[in-house]
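## Example pair
The file below holds two records. Each record gives the amino-acid sequence first, followed by its structure token line.
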Amino acid sequence: MVGEKRFRKSIWIVLTVLIGLTAFLGYEITNLKFDYDFEKFFPVNDDETDFFFAHREMFSSDNDFLLIAVENNAGIFDKSFLINLDEFTSELEKVEDVKYVTSITNMEERFVYQSGASISKPYFDFNDFNAERDSTRIFKNEELINTLVAEDAKSVSIFIRHTDYISKKRSDALINNVNDVIDKFNFERTRVAGRTVGQQYYIEKMTFEMALFVGLSAFLIVFFLFIAFRSVWGVLVPQIIIFSSMIWVVGGMGFFNEPMNIVLSTLPSIMFVVSMSDVIHLVSRYLDALRVEEKVFDAIKIAVKEVGLATFLTSVTTSIGFFSLSFVNVQPIQTFGIVMGFGVLIAFVLTFVTLPVLFYLFPGPKHVRKSKKEHFWMKYLVRGFSAVIRKRMRIVYVTIGVVILSIIGMSQLHSNNFLMDDLRDTEPLKVDFNFLDDHYGGIRPFELAVIVEDTSLNVWDKEVLQTIDSVEHYLEEGYGVTIKNSLVKMLKVMNRSSHSGMKEYYKLPTMNRKLRAHRKALRLVQKGSFIKTFVDSTEMRTRINGTIPDLGNSIVFEKNEKLEKFLQSQNLEGKIKFQVTGTAHLIDKNLKYMSTSLIKGLAVSILIVALIIGFIYRSPTILVISIITNLIPLLFIAGVMGYLGVDLKTSTSIIFTIAFGIAVDDTIHFLGKFKYELMKGKSKIYALKRTYLTTGKAMILTTLILCAGFLLLVFSSFLGTFHMGLLLCITLFVALIADITILPVLLLFMYNPKKKVRQ
């Protein structure tokens, strides 16, 4: 009775503190900010990242532009269409944050004559328009094809260079203003692509889906809680903990000024379903105890005593799974792991501090306290346990077969990533990007830094220029790069201009006198600002800037290796250094880092969990059994991914660490109850049966809720979120099957408890 009196006295103190903290953190949610910086996905503390930032500082961003494709299926060499296009270009030039606009209608071809005189002639003179003549003139200038004019002559591309490193607010204003201009013109089809467009599209989708998944998750949890406990009490009491956990985590982010990033947009869905595990186990055991105990306080003590340690361990192991993501050398993933790890621990604390208080104040459904009957699950669990014992050898053979097939499938796994990989093929943004990818040399930025290491030379020396020219030829013919901007390209255009625009002179000048003349002319273009976009102030560095189709980084890795071999064959050491860089390259490198760091994180996670289980249960055999049981679902999902051709990428790679941390929960609950029964002096088979019957319901319920919660993510427009939801659902379901089949069989065969047990 003394314990109950103390408990009763502390109830109101606990409630006051909890309500006060929850209200405070609820207010802090209003301070939550959003972080949309995609550059945080670059590798952290990496030499290539530092090199890229220094390179970009010298020149300009390789990714701050928009491409607009304007279609006219009857053909672009139509005077009325081109006049509209010219007006459209002029309107775009007036948009705030637009630096300049390049269109075939505002481009001019320059001619330099032997006398030294020069003229510039626009590609289209609407006072003297001739479709056949003008189209012939354009198509002889190869730098325009698939850059400003599609090869099929049914669309044109407009290049918009906007302010570098533009903020989210100004970025949205830019896109909205560009769309307003587009709406003024009645073109057949207009497609827009670029980083700012993708950013706006992604953020709007994520914001909508985050709200959608919160609502769906809440509905789903209410549904499952009612099915499980068949009472208003069974729905409302657990919901208090779940929503309080959410408020504490999100409010904590606001308090510590930690912004919500792209990866954390899945936080509400994951927190809803993960926090359910602790709640279900404690509520389920409390209701079972309430069926046999007269006093509510005694039922609370039994529930906390029997599931407390196991639930603490499951919370620790789940948080370890999330914390292991800190091994990933990408800041948003690290933040996601840390926030979710602490979120799991917060959910545990709130569950075991708040629920006992609520149990005491609101004892539970009357039909449970009055009837004292066993729950309706019991007969199904009895049948399940009997089947496992009878067919234990069959279970072993099936498990071995599944593992072998999974390993075969896992051997077919590949790592790959596309820029627009996260969107379904039917999404309008991806349709537009794919069109530009197919018709305008690709949308994936390509950047090659050129550094003259021989101090006796600079970028204007003929030897250096000829080397760059040979590299550019390889890039165009062997790599598939559409070069948009480079020193050699500009010199070729100027050389052709100095020979009356004759196509055969689109090549690098061979005479130093010509090179000096072109150098002088380039320095005068746009009052010297133009040349700074591809030659630095020391004239020891330049760049080759272009695009390639979005082929996937596995193919790009192969192309980079071939490029490296080509460069090595040129014997350039100590003279000229070529280095691939740029935003797309860093994201590719990040994925390569991620594969190794996630393996390291998963290995550390498994080791720590194994040590915890080994220490708590003081049995190497239990340790081995638990690891075997929880490696099976990981192997299975890796095999499924291999067979279905699901590539390893950011979204799919993190599944393994998250899944292991969550999947091991049921194993720990099972082992905890099993050891508890053995300590009471029960036989191994009886302890197994009691464990199966008492923990089985909670294991099945939590897995169903987790799976249903994650399954909601398959409705996402983002394929990464879709795969995360589907694969996590499959993994956790397989983990449940393993826990109710192979785990008892392994305990039956491998574990021999000590004969002397504490009574």
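Second record, same layout:
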Amino acid sequence: MVDRTIIMNSQFNIGDICTKMQCTQGRANKVAMRWISPQLERTDYTFSDLELLSNRFANVLQELGMANGEVFFTFLPKMPEQFFAFLGALKMQLITGTLFANFGEDALLDRLGDARARILFTKQSFLKKVARIRDRLPCLVYIIVVDVEEDLASDILSYPRLMSAASDQFVTPLTGPEVPSVLHYTSGSTGKPKGVVHRHKSILHQYVTARDILGIKKDDVFWCTADQGWVTGTSYGIIGPWCQGVTQVHYGGGYDAEVWFRLLQDEKITVWYTAPTALRMLLREEPELFGQFDLSNLRHICSVGEPLNPEVIHWAHRTLNKDIFDTWFQTETGGIMIANRPGLEIRPGSMGKPVQGIEPSILADDGTPQADGEQGNLCIKADWPSMFVTFLNNETAYKSKFRDGWYYTGDTSYRDSDGYFWFMGRSDDVINTAGHLVSPFEVESALLEIPEIAESGVIAAPDDMLYEKVVAFVSLHKQFQYTKELELKIRIYVSNKLSTIASPQEIIPIDAIPKNKSGKIMRRVLKARYLGTDIGDISTLED
């Protein structure tokens, strides 16, 4: 059964529950967020601060004419204002999206354009990217800039000025469970990114899973390393902990093993939620490094984003004397579905067992249930509280994900005789690199904009650090030759157009890209050639 104890007076509003409700329950002066800058400067924000600052931002949005159901986006690195804006926009009942700070102009255009975003909240150094696509965003009315003291234009507004003029009192409208809330974009294998829309009801599932799976307790200090541009960073870097009044640490810097472990020690972190890529990077550090730090407050470590290697689990036992609990969910699921957790035996390499109230199944392509030990489509019985409710402006694609009451995740797995689930791979071509999903179609499209490239094909290849890496095959126009200079140009171009995450880790020149007779790129042929495995049936290849 879903725990509804966080819902009072039928108010499902995520922003209100994470701020005002915590204050009314006696936590107004409790530290909600300890912000640690990249320079390791600390600033504490109480739940009262979150309430008042998010109220101010809600009033800013209201003053600018935003109405419930319209789309608002942040495009920021991790910084305190990201959280105030996110919660304030939800209080306004806006569909609230967060964009990864490393996105390039094409990635921005695809998402902002598809969503018909009305307001974008960003920083001054990102304005050049936005300016290059602004004329193709007719719905974008205002840009709010976090780090300028005065307005730059009539439609490019100063956040400090707006906030200073706004009231810190705001009455959040009564928000029902089905009202749209958070928007994230996910990549597909053959088309543009799709906008995954959630509802305020998702907080029921995020509350329960943060408590029961991550094991968060009221007096804990929680650290989620995920960026707010991704679903983990909102579901469990904002909503799950704050809806139960838990203190979070947020750090604005990048990976640094010594800094991270000093934070774990000095901030007395009790529960740490991070990614397998980060853990694999720690595994490569000298073991002596970790012996310097007192981790006695750290109760356990949780992992998300990609399958967790058994060797990382063994490393944590050997080096840190800690368990790592792997968890599985997707942008579409909104919260953890299958997981290892305290009290459940860890089987290294397994996804774990289903969360209470979640019914997964392994189905064949025709919908037939598979026996234990047989691989098939990982499917979830539809209508759990945090289930996405549509792909924005693409209801046809949304409906294609459901069949006979089951959501088809796009992952393949099997269940063993003891009820543990084991991830096997994707049933499409989407690339999971360091926990970020990358569309091969998007990368191929960007590559074709480079004058020297005639054709391109992009695949995922196994990688010890990233789980999967982006490998690009390129066929050049006859008058060009592949050089180191061209390789650098390709990497920079894709980084600027899409993101640094999408930039190929390996680029391979090839005479021609294999396609079938209808012109579809045969990525499985490219992958087999790269891995040196059997190509299989090639009767449909072009002559």
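Notes on the second record: The mean pLDDT is 93. The CA atoms of residues 287 and 437 lie 31 Å apart.
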